[in-house]
């Protein structure tokens, strides 16, 4: 039964259906529809993931000709790497829905909800949840696509709902600016990638049969120069999305000016497209060029790791703070990808899942507090743990997950990346390890500044502890972070089967015999 | 000797053009014969029936197949011609629907009641009170349409010149007929006329020089001369060829609105009545690029090494100037004018690429001509739709073309703002709209033609172009109206519900933009059938 129906299409389109129902229904019903749809999506995503057979190749494959003259197929497939991210996108969405449950409801007199002092949201909950579901659909398509053209289409399209999510619901006066900056960076990456996408088409047409299927393209023989140029186009777009220093500057602004829910969708899910794309397309289509670029990419990754961490320490705004920690973490993920051992590739993929979970927790819990306090400035907090102990506890948990405390899931992935890096490039590993110290520093400093110390009057007045609904929303994240920290094996073995295949196709082997050199 | 063979004309194949031209002539008679009350209805009926008949004939001729040169070798009815005729007729009909609109303007048309009356005089006021109307606009537009059909189909330079004049003269008139802001409109018409006349002179001079070089007005004759060399021509002959080519290019690029021959575009687009602007922006561009490609591929294709570098420069300049200047515009129509310049530049990238069978394009690959054809559909649909929306957004002074009065439109009229956003996203080349597939196609043709660097320039310019489209979306959805500054007089524009003909224009635009964005395969297949000019 599982093999006949186009299950992946059903999975990817479920949120779209939900979004349409949300738009057609009343504002009051929006959140219920959104929650129901996203829960069904989770169930289906889990069932499909569990049903994957071993081997690591693409499964549940769908392939139909879409645009014949362009060689574009409507082709979907699920492998271990994609499944990890599909799970992430499915799990985080209902959490976001529940965490923002009544944030954008209309006020009793029909006005729009307040998102910051003197600022209202531009739209009500109906639009918010429709946009969240739209982002989810795009993300699912991106993680499932096995056709470059299909991937590209959603790579660009996702910018539109995300843009409205930032510009329409962010707190603060600079949200339009931040949304525009986000869009310009996204479009720049997207259009540069378009040149490479077109180049791939011409290359495959020259080879005899124009096709955008990954399976057809990976067999293509490209000239060295050609491959490197095409690789650069893709890499540029992914490095903006993932964000890698020096292309990162949009992220702190976008996160600061986003609503917590929007920031979670953006950093938690959407930015993973960048690192996922590096694995799927940069390594999958341009293996030689990827190895050619490795030194530069690794240097940038290490710079991102340290730079993000240092800026996080100095950050004055909670949302911005989370954005900088994410830049640091994306550095780790990229490092792991380009070290190109099975261990680091697996670690990086797992890292994407863990980073998504812990960032979601961090953004959403911070969002609870910011909403109550009416400010995201770190200096405006202080002593929160005395008035809101559960909220402080949740924030601490999310923070510890971010600094990769042993026993939590992110520790496993960070350890895999670092250990693998040491095995192949000890110098990079050594520098990157510094970030562990910095991470402890930024998390604990942030916690100390906001949660401990004397209770500030404004905090005492306004901050109350989290409600049951808010706790329930975060609970799945906490459970998963703990569970995967103690018993990551099922996910890791699923990922590993696919990364092993990938390694074979890239043509690198693990470094046991290669320590200390690249020969 | 002695017998004169009767020339074969091929009336059946020329019928679409003949029908439109005849309908325009009949339209003039209608003005003379039919009582005033019935004229508008009669003209509309005539125009739509003519376009409908022409469309049916074009399609049936096309599906019967066969590329032939008819009318004593003066007209080439081939794949590109049929494709261009089809889209010209469709877009023409849709624009005529906008011409017929009277509801948004409280029962009068968008055209001046009496064009000959000096603005602000008693004569004008009387004409307004009389509720007079220039129903001649439809025959004029039909003449222009017939010229547009002949222009890209012309197989010799003389026919092409005649077609150029048939299409231009009625347009000069139509531009000066705006009901509101009449001085601007007349200025636009004057400017367009003077510059257009100048460019026609360039075209004619170029044609003469090419004749001097090759001894033929036929495109294929010029091609033969270039391929085989002309007896007795040395460096002097090459000089004739190059000069002729350059002058022809000036004339054609002027009509196409390419930099540096673009300076008329913003003024004319702004001054002309909006339905006319929509008609010009969509249809004139189609005709002009069709003719440009035919001349440069068929007649001058063998000498493309000489014109490609220069055209590449023109393409870049057009993209850059159009996109960058659009950013600074504060008027919707002016912004759309610069955007049309930018799109001309994107289309030119495929033109410069010249990826045709003759230059080694593979079977089944999109040629430059096919990708331009698709782009024209995408661009035309979005353009007509966008201008139709412009006619609907009004304030007390008429169309509210100031961008500042569009602020917050997303709040007041979400549906209209959403539809306009779809057009803007298509212009910007965001996927799932036809504009994206169009962009992909033209860039792919340029790349296939070996111009990788031009594609890279074009994608970077695309970001700039996307920026100013998005800026309008931001204005409509994200910018709050400054409440204090909003006095009664400066209130933002409101959307006036138009009649069904204008709604049809919007509907066709949206449908084409979305359907060809999600499922472009069939249309691309048709465009592939129109991939090569007959020689």
TrEMBL record, chain A:
Subcellular location as annotated: Endomembrane system; Membrane
Single GO biological process annotation from the record: electron transport coupled proton transport
Keyword Membrane assigned: yes
Residues spanning the membrane: 6-25, 32-52, 72-99, 127-144, 150-170, 182-203, 229-251, 292-314, 321-340, 352-370, 390-408, 428-447, 468-487
InterPro entries per UniProt: NADH_Q_OxRdtase_chainM/4, NADH_UbQ_OxRdtase, ND/Mrp_TM
Keyword Methyltransferase on entry: no
Keywords tagged on the record: Membrane, Transmembrane, Transmembrane helix
Main location: membrane
Highest taxon of source: Bacteria
NADH:quinone oxidoreductase/Mrp antiporter transmembrane domain segment(s): 145-437
Pfam families the UniProt entry points to: Proton_antipo_M
Membrane topology: Multi-pass membrane protein
A Gene Ontology term for the protein's cellular component: endomembrane system
Listed GO MF terms: NADH dehydrogenase (ubiquinone) activity; NADH dehydrogenase activity; ubiquinone binding
Family assignment from sequence similarity: Belongs to the complex I subunit 4 family.
Stored NCBIfam families: NDH_I_M, PRK05846.1-4
Protein name (Swiss-Prot/TrEMBL): NADH-quinone oxidoreductase subunit M
Lineage: Bacteria, Bacillati, Actinomycetota, Actinomycetes, Propionibacteriales
TrEMBL record, chain B:
Catalytic reaction(s) noted: a quinone + NADH + 5 H(+)(in) = a quinol + NAD(+) + 4 H(+)(out)
Alphabetical list of InterPro entries matching this protein: NADH-Q_OxRdtase_suN/2 (IPR010096), ND/Mrp_TM (IPR001750)
Gene name for this UniProt entry: nuoN
Keywords: Cell membrane, Membrane, NAD, Quinone, Translocase, Transmembrane, Transmembrane helix, Transport
Family: Belongs to the complex I subunit 2 family.
Protein name: NADH-quinone oxidoreductase subunit N
Subcellular location: Cell membrane; Endomembrane system; Membrane
Source organism: Microlunatus flavus
GO biological process, one term: ATP synthesis coupled electron transport
Domain of life: Bacteria
GO cellular component annotations of the record: endomembrane system; plasma membrane
Membrane-topology annotation of the record: Multi-pass membrane protein
